[in-house]
Known about the structure:
It is a single chain. The protein has helices at residues 19-28, 46-53, 68-74, 93-98, 117-126, 140-147, 157-165, 205-217, 223-228, 236-246, 259-273; strands at 15-16, 36-40, 57-62, 81-85, 106-111, 131-139, 166-174, 179-180, 187-194. The N and C termini lie far apart (48 Å). The protein has two domains: 2-194, Vaccinia Virus protein VP39 (Rossmann fold, 3-Layer(aba) Sandwich), CATH 3.40.50.150; 205-273, rRNA adenine dimethylase, C-terminal domain (Helicase, Ruva Protein, domain 3, Orthogonal Bundle), CATH 1.10.8.100. The mean pLDDT is 95. It contains eleven helices and nine strands. The protein is of the alpha/beta class and 280 residues long. The strands form two sheets. Strands 4-3-2-5-6-9-7 form a seven-stranded mixed β-sheet. The structure holds S-adenosylmethionine (SAM).
Amino acid sequence: MRYGIRPRKSLGQNFLISGNVLDRIVAAAEIRSGDTVVEIGPGVGVLTRRLALAGARVIALELDRRLLPLLEETLADLSGVEVVQGDALEVDFRALLAERGLTGTFKVVANLPYYITSPLIARLLEEGHPFELAVVMVQREVAERLVAGPGTKAYGAFSVLVQYYTQPASVLRVSRRNFSPPPEVDSTVILMRRLKEPRVKVNSAPAFFAVVRGAFGQRRKMLPSALEGAGLGLDKRFWMQVCEIAGIDPKRRGETLSIGEFGQLADAYTKYHGNPFAGK
Ligand code: SAM
């Protein structure tokens, strides 16, 4: 690579070398002139360039300082692009945009470094950032978890989190041959479109997620036993009653519950026990 930069595995530096895949990512993000896009990890700027040419105002957040002079050079002819040095797991996205007078919604587009995929997606969702959609390249196994439904091996607390806030869909399967250096796994481009309202209406979102985490924490156990160990202040016998109030068979395991059923269970819990998360 120019500037004598060697890609760092620890930073997930697998650069896309397929123009076709890059075009498909930009198309999936439905870029319209004037859109604000936050790109995580521009690398050498190949995706950044296409986003800008499609009319987006791009804030590209890159952790690796070594890439900054290179990006400055490769993107110099484009307007509406700004490269910011920072860590996507730490940066204050609201401030990043507000400081530039950007207060509306934005899109997230990225060929994500694998090691930050799940914490970054969780962060964007849990912190309530007003992103309208995200189009991200993730390792295939994470993509499967994002879209998984009840009763499948890939279904877990992460699937529920993503599907509570967004409508996820697989856009494109991408073989490792499309990257340099090639990673050890294949990838999938995922589109997550934020729902106007969360998928289910619950009394308390924190209680809902605590119940979901508890149920999947010991996923092979029946609900009352799994939830007893979840630190929610109820023992097994009382969880049996909560299941009954919720109209859910207490012999079931968490991995079989739909998001709607998790909502019923969480609401029955807060009604029965009170909400330990109130005001949080
Ligand atoms: N967008 C380029 C492409 O498609 O070829 C590069 C993608 S590469 C998979 C991931 C990029 O994310 C690298 O440039 C890496 O330095 C950067 N990166 C790694 N960790 C990061 C973090 N925590 N915050 C921001 N960028 C990060």
